[in-house]
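Before drawing any conclusions, I looked closely at one protein, both as residues and as discrete backbone shape codes, quoted below without any editing:
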Amino acid sequence: MKISRKIELAVIIGVILSMVLNIVSFAVTCDNVRQDILRLHVIAASDSDEDQQLKLKVRDAVLKAGAEVFDGSVNVDNAVKKLTPELNYLEQVAEKTVKENGFDYDVSVNLSKEFFATRTYEKVTLPAGKYLAVKVIIDEGKGKNWWCVMFPSLCLPAAAVKTELDDVLNEKEVQLVSRNPKYEPRFKIVEIIEKYFK
């Protein structure tokens, strides 16, 4: 093999290795972000206008009823301890809201690890993967969903305990979620990998 061919091959291998290491580092940072975020996920019964409106009413009722636990003090570390005793009450509130609006749907409220695709919320982009989430499912949950970040409280501006991203994530993680996904192909690569292993 000629020397120029060996150099060419070494450069190609070096570039590929560099890309793989870059993606792996990015994926590890994404995983660290997922460990520090708590989400709220409300899923409508269907995509009909009525069910989508009902979803928003249930969301509002759940947020109001859970104001004390959704005040920004619940984080991933204490979520199970603080939220588990409240889930039954939040479910009753959601069911009552459904009935008051003339529907006969069952509702379930639980705390679980859920897969979310890459999503942008205002100026923050959260990578795809499994996040701890309070999940509210109306009927069979076949409709479009509504989600937000409960900790740090990005979707709850009136939270009593104000927690900023910088308080929860390290500098590298803040840089990652502050990127524009349109110009960040690694978000898509991580999403494909996460969906494959989901």
About this structure: DSSP finds six helices and six strands in the chain. Strands lie at 38-43, 107-116, 119-121, 124-126, 129-138, 145-151.
